[in-house]
Description:
By secondary structure, the chain is an alpha/beta fold. The protein contains 9 helices and 10 strands.
Amino acid sequence: MSALQPHRMPVLFVGHGSPMNALADNACHRTWASLGQRLPRPKAILCISAHWLTRGVCLTGAVKPETIHDFQGFPAALYAMQYPASGDPALARHIMAQLATREVSLDSRRGLDHGAWGVLAAMYPAADVPVVQLSLDLRQPGAVHYAMAGELACLRDEGVLIVGSGNVVHNLGLFRGDASQPLDWAVRCDAEIKRRIAARDHQALIDYRTLDPQIDLAVPTPEHYFPLLYALALHREGEPLRFFNEAVLGSISMTSVLIGEAN
């Protein structure tokens, strides 16, 4: 790990949506690019993505993680895209030390999935900030993920930008090509989740199955939702919080959260 820096890094939860957002000139991509220019320069990034699911918890330990194209049916330009950010094995080992009481291992072969590079390619297009990914163990409930994130709070004071990447409402099975008309239940669940976030009602968000009668449509499986809990667990008392990219596209919400921005 490099030396401490004086300013606490903010925390992000990003609704990443379609992999095409990595290339598209749209509002989401432009906002990600603006964040990369405006936020304090990180010494490294820790990303918790919806797209790395494991038994037990794993961290990427590769020096040069590959770009994983973990999707199907998209244009050739997306498969040709590379994000050659370095890894940071020393940071990965440091994170393991913070999670010493948990089942955590290093994976020296795992690359970066599109939940990570799809967002970071817009934020840091030069790929000049080292990136480590932390996997999701879906055998564990939300309370465990929230608690584990809290054990990583020190990273913010060490220059590490922590990014959760998923979607607060994500039902791909009910997504249709014309996403201009958001589904009523998706809009309602997105609004309720945002209301609870703004109220710092973290317990309700951990126990998300009680939020709405149709929450099982909004969050049919938890992998896109749990990265939100990692960001919320790092929200310290009195820190500013704001939403961005607040759009519901059919059955998917792009709602994103920035915590701790200084200005």
